[in-house]
Write a structure and sequence with these properties.
The termini are far apart. By secondary structure, the protein is an alpha+beta fold. The chain has helices at about 5-20, 335-370, 375-385, 385-395, 450-460; strands at about 30, 40, 45-50, 50-55, 60-70, 75-80, 85, 95-100, 105, 115-125, 130-140, 145-150, 155, 165-170, 175-180, 185, 190-195, 200-205, 215-220, 225, 235-245, 250, 255-260, 260-270, 275-285, 285-290, 295-300, 305-315, 320-330, 410-415, 445-450. It is built from 5 helices and 31 strands. Strands 2-11-10-5-6-7 form a 6-stranded mixed sheet. A 6-stranded mixed sheet has the order 22-23-29-28-25-26.
Length: about 450
Amino acid sequence: MLSWSPLANFFWNLQCKIYFLLVGVCSALKLTVPSHTIHGIEGQPLHLTVDYNFNATASEIQIIWLFERPQSNPKYLLGSVNQTVVPDLEYQHKFTLIPPNASLMINPLHTSDEGNYIVKVNVRGNRTIAASGKIQVAVDVPVTKPTVHTEPSSGVVEYVGNITLKCTVDKGTRIAYQWMKNGKHLHAGPNYIFSSNNATLLIVPVVKEDIGNYSCLVSNPISAMESEIIAPTIYYGPYELRVKSDKGLNIGAVFTVDLGEVILFDCSADSNPPNTYSWIQRDDNTTHVIKYGPHLEVVSDKVAQKTIDYVCCAFNNVTGKQDETHFTVVVTSIGLEKLAQKGKSLSSLAVITGISLFLILAMTFLFLWKRYQPHKVIQQKLQSRPEADYRKAQAFSGHESASDDFGIYEFVAFPDLASGSRVSSQSVRGSDFVPDQDMLSTVYEVICHVPDHPQQDHQQ
């Protein structure tokens, strides 16, 4: 095993400096190594990339890797001469030289491998030139998902209590903590106090504006994880108490309602937990509770006054705070006119409907009466008619002049001639009646009722 003492290292560097000062040969070898810290993951391989080049003829190239921790001497890891590797027996299965350059593979990486890695390259030709470099390696463990705990977990009252949020992580190295609120980074403020490593957040005192979704973001150079969202319970209110209605004209704190209308009032306020509501009515300098709950129904035609004062009171039984709002309901007479117009419209509609039904019933009755009653009625009238009417009908049946025909006529049907024994045979002389004709056949006779005045004119 090769040994590399601090004294040998000193003379090697001194030799390179002398050559540089005398002939400037050292500048001919250029060694490139990472300038920043390399972060490796525990249990994973790590590749340290090193490049070198020179502009001289080389007969022998020597590469040496050393490892040192703070406050300790460098330890030889491995070396090579013209690509022939000479490892240290203790690390021969862990460190590997990757040709053609001077790169080093560490597999697997452990937290004990954290430190500085030194690489040296010697090129021998006409002269010997050398260069060295140092690489800082940090070994990290990935962080696990953090957990946030709230104290107290039952919630606090604004301006009274404080909230403490603690972020804990099971695994991870070099952890950085960052608090988030509603997806944005949370910075120190008048009521936000962070611990030295930002793992704890203290909110003092708690106000309503502190309500939100909090989370803890933990990270290190190789990983990052965010906790579940947590929303601390903060009790507050009531705030912004207001009254709204589904009808009526709202002017400031006055609601104008038409007589006969029903108006529904809704009382609400911002609060946690929800408020309890009570409705108070003022009458003659006295007040009394008329209802509990957020809703109130007022029937305007049942109130005793045209102007009524109401109060909605909201109370939070956790914070112990309450608020109230006053409003007035004014009942106008416009609604009474609307009700009268509605009554008139209803009466007209009822009348039209009644007349229509009466006409329909009358026409139906008349149709049925004509359908089933006319024969009996006519037969009874003919039987009770005197014989003088039949003689008049015979005397005027000749149609000698138009004045003789003036009068009112009836068309009578005889369903059965046997029942009309009073009718003379002369009354049907002008007809086509045959004695042997069936007695059930229908015979028509015209009876003339002659007015007095037209008859006198005819005689003159």
